């Protein structure tokens, strides 16, 4: 997962409270991955992105990329996957 957030303040202060902890982001991914199963990678990625944007309103954009190894397709393929972008809703 990649997250877009303005990091000027934590860059100046060197204070984790001004940033977003990688551990917190990891925990969202872990919770979704270890939770109830899904049929589609798209559903997993969407839930990760949604939970991330809901928890961290300072994140403007999130990219979730998931790969599935050992897929049942003909041909020499190591893995297949999806990549989604989701954006923080902005009230206008």
Automatic annotation (TrEMBL):
Offer one Pfam family short name for this entry.
Answer: FolB
From the UniProt record, give one GO term of the biological process aspect.
folic acid biosynthetic process
Q: Which GO terms describe its cellular component?
A: cytoplasm
Q: What is its EC number?
A: 4.1.2.25
Pathway assigned to this chain's UniProt record: Cofactor biosynthesis; tetrahydrofolate biosynthesis; 2-amino-4-hydroxy-6-hydroxymethyl-7,8-dihydropteridine diphosphate from 7,8-dihydroneopterin triphosphate: step 3/4
Q: What family is this protein classified in?
A: Belongs to the DHNA family.
Name recorded for this polypeptide: dihydroneopterin aldolase
Q: Where is the signal peptide?
A: none
Its taxonomic path starts at: Eukaryota, Viridiplantae, Streptophyta, Embryophyta, Tracheophyta
- UniProt cross-references to Gene3D superfamilies, sorted A to Z: 3.30.1130.10
* Catalytic reaction list: 7,8-dihydroneopterin = 6-hydroxymethyl-7,8-dihydropterin + glycolaldehyde
Q: Name one GO molecular function term.
A: dihydroneopterin aldolase activity
Q: Which organism is it from?
A: Papaver nudicaule
Q: Write down the SMART domains for this protein, in alphabetical order.
A: FolB
Where in this chain does the record put each Dihydroneopterin aldolase/epimerase domain?
A: 1-86
Q: Which SUPFAM superfamilies does this one have?
A: Tetrahydrobiopterin biosynthesis enzymes-like
Q: Does the keyword Acetylation apply?
A: no
**Which key words are in the record?**
Folate biosynthesis, Lyase
Source species, domain of life? Eukaryota
